[in-house]
Amino acid sequence: MSDTKDLGTEEQLRRVLTVERYPRSSTYDQLWVVDNLMGPHPLWAAEALTQVMLLRPGMRVLDLGCGTALTSIFLAREYDVQVWAVDLWVEPTENWERIQQAGVAGRVHPVHADARTLPFADGFFDAIVSLDAYHYFGTDALYLPYCVEFLRPGGSLGIVAPGLRRDPGPDLPAYLAERWGPDMCTWLGPDWWRRHWERTGLVEVDVADMVPGGWEDWLRWLDACELVGRGHEPDARMLRADGGDLLGFTRVLAHRVR
Ligand SMILES: C[S@@+](CC[C@H](N)C(=O)[O-])C[C@H]1O[C@@H](n2cnc3c(N)ncnc32)[C@H](O)[C@@H]1O
């Protein structure tokens, strides 16, 4: 990033966060993304998901744990879907401001709710997405059966969340042990999520993988955030030491079979 140090912050962020893998995300104001961050680049996560998940215009989409609703805005703008932007920690009034400013007031509906007590009708949604959020509530074996009730039969559920490609076992590498905490117990891999969902008999899993280049994107994001004093050095150090061996983003897509 040394070649960007004399540029203004906005331009530096634009350069560092323009990534070929995510052409749609690259058209957004990256300072807007960083200013509203709650975790790794949310638009990249949404775009990584939509690279395997089909969204058609007019679909009803639940964005579960939408945070500051950037992904809801992105989905409405890019795929012309109707989005219910549900979050627990971020006030819907605050999200409504962002939604109106983004010009998608007719297509994004902010809702304050706990993912475990959703105020929707059974079968209402064509798709449910959850970006960097599902692991906060979805590891409960009873959660998927609850959640898919809100999907029409054949509707899809897609998530992207931090994950470890495989179970590191009891002897953690030093760089993981140094950062380890309860949050990381929910950083599960594609095989774990596939089994967790498929054993319910309620969905078929279409994709369960690690987002290609996910660890590099994560590190790039943290380095960019560092430019505005919002990096996270312990995570950056861990990602560098891992070099993509274990860490990255798990992506899982399934559809409701009954
Ligand atoms: C790391 S943030 C990610 C937010 C956003 N999806 C993004 O990518 O920027 C995790 C989000 O999950 C939401 N969350 C956690 N537990 C939740 C729950 N039980 N119900 C609804 N949302 C929840 C939080 O409110 C928070 O906004």
UniProtKB/TrEMBL annotation:
GO annotation, biological process? methylation
Gene3D superfamilies in the record, alphabetically? Answer: Vaccinia Virus protein VP39
Q: Which InterPro entries match?
A: Erg6_SMT_methyltransf, Methyltransf_25, SAM-dependent_MTases_sf
Q: Where is the Methyltransferase domain?
A: 61-155
Q: List the molecular function annotations (GO) for this entry.
A: methyltransferase activity
Q: Name one Pfam family in it.
A: Methyltransf_25
Its keywords, alphabetically, are: Methyltransferase, Transferase
The name under which this protein is listed is: Methyltransferase domain-containing protein
From which organism does this entry originate?
Actinopolymorpha singaporensis
